[in-house]
């Protein structure tokens, strides 16, 4: 009787397990029909022009097209650089292209790693010493000492000093990450199951929908595996970019390792981070908060371009260039969102662009 129930239970477990295993298979199939799988409200996918995309000449005509369904190919200016802005075989952090990233990389490689190496070696040496010198055979009658003021002071003060040495640069880095300087450009990043969209409130509030490419398209375009997208997030080089993250459905996380940024995208909330990159190029990231079955198939590609290329790209997307990215940021462009004011203001600043659903904060 007992045996029988156990057998049935075991059978059930096996059944459940095989069921789960087969249910997981679809998730690992290649990400082909992303757009088709999107919810009905998803904006149409921009035609992924394999390889031929970076033709700058195609862009000006695009502005006259008003129907969102027929968009001319959006220009892409840079090809990815191996080893920069994307994962490689190297051990350690990706080469950092922002000042915060450089500081953090120094903090990690120049301070934390040496400290933990020294501490680990010290502890290992102490352990070996105790094992060899004070085992029962080598030290038959142990000392009865229970207090030693000197050594007690040392092993209290030394860790405090180590912690202080770590805390000061650590808090400095945190402060740098959280205090956005006066931005030259604001991009609102919205996570969706399972793609990203980017809104440009300073440039006529157009939106770019960014879907993953198929493996074949990745190969044809020379994109790193599973990181290529059909529409990149484009920003000008040398500009301070304020990134506002939010979500359409569940919690996602916008992360670009080479910029040292990672910010949760939470439905109904606006989070904020920033970066400034001087080197033009393409930098990749991924959603970094488990958000469902295709979490692994919503890559991020940020293209940093020259200001004139940025203007061209904005035009091709039907946007406007209101004011130069630096000083004259007065509400120059007709009907465009007002330039985002103080950097200290919370995410609610560029309220003109915030959709009703997310404006609650
Ligand atoms: Cu995700």
Task: Explain how this protein is built.
The protein has 361 residues and is of the alpha+beta class. Among the domains are: 87-134 and 152-179, Orthogonal Bundle (Helix Hairpins); 185-325, Cupredoxins -  blue copper proteins (Immunoglobulin-like), CATH 2.60.40. Helix content is 32%, strand content 16%. The strands form 2 sheets. Strands 3-2-1-5-8 form a 5-stranded mixed sheet, with no helix packed on it. Strands 4-10-9-6-7 form a 5-stranded mixed sheet. Helix 4 (99-133) runs antiparallel to helix 5 (149-178). It is elongated and about 85 Å long. The N and C termini lie far apart (61 Å). Bound molecules: copper (II) ion. Copper (II) ion is lined by residues 252, 287, 289, 291, 295, 298.
Describe the oligomeric state of these chains in a short phrase: single chain
β-strand amount: 15-25%
CATH domain class of one domain: Mainly Beta
Extended strand count: 10
CATH topology assignment of one domain: Immunoglobulin-like
Taking the sheet with the most strands, its summary is: 5 strands, mixed
Strand order within the widest sheet? 3-2-1-5-8
General form? elongated
Q: Number of helix segments? A: 7
Structural class: alpha+beta
Mean pLDDT: 77
Report how far apart the termini are: 61 Å
Rg from alpha-carbon coordinates: 27 Å
CATH superfamily of one domain: Cupredoxins -  blue copper proteins
